[in-house]
Amino acid sequence: MREFDLAVIGGGPAGMAAAVAAKKKGLDNIIIFERDNVLGGILNQCIHNGFGLHTFKEELTGPEYAERYADMVRELGIPVETGTMVLNISPDRVVTILSSGRGVEDIYARSVVLAMGCRERPRGALGIAGYRPQGIYTAGTAQHLINIDGIMPGKECVILGSGDIGLIMARRMTLEGAHVAAVFELMPYSGGLNRNIVQCLDDFGIPLKLSHTVIDIKGKEKLEGVVVAEVKDGKPIPGTEEYYPCDTLLLSCGLIPENELTRSCGIAIDPLKNGAVVDDRLQTSIPGVFACGNVLHVHDLVDHVSAEAAKAGESAAAFVRGGSAPEGRVIKLIPKNGVKYTVPNSFTAGSLDDEPHIRFRVTGIYKNAAVVIKCGEKELFRRKMRVMIPSEMQDLAVKKDVLAAADADLEIMTEGDIS
Amino acid sequence: MVDVTVIGAGVIGCAVARELTRYCLDVCVVEKETDVCEGTSKANSGIVHAGFDAKPGTLKAALNVKGCGMIPELARTLDFAYRNNEALVLCFDEAQLGGLRELYDRGIANGVEGLELLTPEQVREAEPALNDVAGALLARTSGIVCPFEMTIAFAENACDNGAVFRFDTTVKGITRDGSLYRILTDKGSFESRYIVNAAGVYADTIHNMVCEDKMKITPRRGEYYLLDKEVGNTVKRTIFQLPTKMGKGVLVTPTAHGNLMVGPSADNIDDKENTATTSGGLASVKERAGLSVSGIPFGKTITNFSGLRAVGETDDFIIKESAENFIDAAGIESPGLTSAPAIAGYIADIIVKKDGLHPRSDFIETRKGVKHFAALSREEQNELIRNDPAYGNIVCRCETVTEGEIRDAIDRTLGAKTLDGVKRRTRAGMGRCQAGFCTPKTMALIAEKYGIPLDSVRKN
Amino acid sequence: MTKELICICCPMGCGLTVEMNGSEVVSVTGNTCKRGDDYARQELTAPMRTVTTTVRTADGVSIPVKTKEPVPKDRIFDCVKDIKAANVTLPVRVGDVIAANVAGTGIDAVAARSV
Fold first, then answer.
1. What are the E-state strand segments in B39-126?
2. Can B257 be counted among the known catalytic residues?
3. ipTM of model
4. C-alpha distance from A69 to closest chain B C-alpha (Å)
5. N or C: which end of chain C has fewer CB atoms below 10 A?
6. pTM confidence score
């Protein structure tokens, strides 16, 4: 059986950053398994700009960002096996891989970084009534068809969901000659970044209709149109129905971390974020198995993915070289009022970084509110936040001393009113 | 001129065609859609019913029980997914235990084996996820089948034995020309000695082209939820509800491939093409299924769909020679899927007797389906990859379907021409991402095979 | 006159308040960094955008392309048209010019991926 110090599952931005970081920490025997034929993951189809402002201090497109990391992987001599699907990971880190060149093979990894990314919520999971014709795509599938395969899914388009991919695809479809009638969003706020509303919708006069959803799909073989209605408390308001003829319906209604391997490995999943339960080293409930990027929790910015993944890679390196878990008390970090989830789920008091990051999302729109970390009644940390919205991940760097002061589990919460 | 024309390539038409190819007959199957299994056969519960439901003495009762007995062996010879997972009919009200007893007695009268009335304790032990019941009927011969695979298996085997399939061909009229029928289609006309009407919800249209006594088939729409395999083991058995004054219940069942399925609703409609789901229909399924299992994780739904049952006016299957050499297989509602092989035998008998035929000696009894990579042993998988590296490329990651399987599905007898065709033969795109990732790759493989541009590849 | 803008320079998407005197920008507030100030002044006088699209090579491969610098917003469609019309043959390196002086903007459109 082939043996590796670190097997990285997935060669997208998270996997590449983890491998690079582990290598820089002196780990030599690393392998990246990538199911596609090239490195880069979803970035390869994200041809728009806006990536890399934190990591590279310049604005890059997705493929450029991916290529920078792929170059690092190559320059550092990290082996990559593309066209390789990981079928299983056992709790003792035997990884079963499949490729046309090697068939089905078990390898042993002293550490594993999970970086499988996420998938899009499909139509079926949304429960939209109506027919199931040709012409309904998740935004990412349409993005692949247009940007990689070079074909247009249609000419007259409606977009449901205002996630960033949906907004980006509204512009992309428009630039490619299609007409985008509108973007509809079930929630009263956008699921994507404000800058994307400006440069992808406003620039092209595409309306964003909040508190609206598709309630019926017409056309038995080919999509003919959709019925849209305004919603209140999640229910369509009778009388507000409007018919939009279209041949394409794109769905950008949320992303789901792809944790099937994680689950079958027996790793504990945090239902609040649909990703593994991790400590501050991004180690999962199984020693030596780390998680990062969109498989851990869905990010909005690849720059955050790279930073998080680097931490996972460094932790894997430390695990392999140190062999055992760091000493110290485990302090749980529990999301409370207004905080949907956190990464990490816990800290180990004895091995804190100088400035551990806490990444989280809020459950509503907060303006001029604060994030507070408490230990029992004692307030350990407070930061004012001008704006926090559910679609933007928050990334707090907290001083080590603050957490080290904890003598019991921590609670993180917002303070202020939802606006 | 052909000997027998089967109108409709659903499970009944394909099973009949296969059965007829046992004899020296030229068999032609005419289908208005692009593929087999495009109507009722593709959107149903996939249950192999034990046969306690139908009234004793009816064709339904006899053919159901017979079909249920045939399917396990057919699943082996024709290589389609089948599991004998048993079924429970739940009774929630002690006052209705008599109804359960009636069902049991009916089953015995129909010749169903392995029936047993269970106590609430036995039910709880058998299926811990169920809500409290007053009692239940256990049907040990009940099973689940993949309806696509079963239909496709019949069709491929029929084709291997010489049946000719004409797709995208709609029957527009039928005339009698001496001892022959002339079948007029949108792709020209041809003559046939016999006609088997297996046109599903359109069986009345076909019947009325030939027969004096008019028939009416009402489409009864059933809407379903299909849930992620992650929760496929919520129940082990197929869970029915004893019909109450609140109406006929819905079932909760694992599928032959390990998903969880919940449904169907039952609404008579006018439009024979209307397979749309409705918010009302889905809501009622959800509500009524909650009676059996209150904790169904509907958040794990991966798709909804609806199908039309072809309901006749006689409360029984209509299988008979309705006019000279014109044989109806009409009103084949549930348990039509289970009964399909028995119906095929019944219809073949009519023709065989009239023509005094003997079986061919060169009939090919078996058929191998698309090899499902994920279901093979490690050794078999590696053997496959050594012979064809395409089996080492995963195309559908959710269902672990390889490029080799998709190529096989496209290249084989009556191969897939559309994304849905590939899906029903391989399960590529049937998983939790619902074809988000594999669509472009599958499209490319279809485009390559048929030499068409990528954007001409159809979903259905 | 006051105008409200959302800065598109980075994902923060700061809400900018711009005091105008006719077509002249008097002051910008709400920005967190210098770029917000620059953006508001630019956006209200001559808005600029980076254009990204794809071009198909003779071999039928899709290559991502971007304008090296932002171009006038009202020239976006002209740029896409020019890029689509470019003749590209493999191999392509990231940064290779695909369409020089795209749509007469003085800006080059370059490949965003090596193939």
1. 47-48, 82-83, 87-91, 115-118
2. no
3. 0.94
4. 23
5. N
6. 0.94
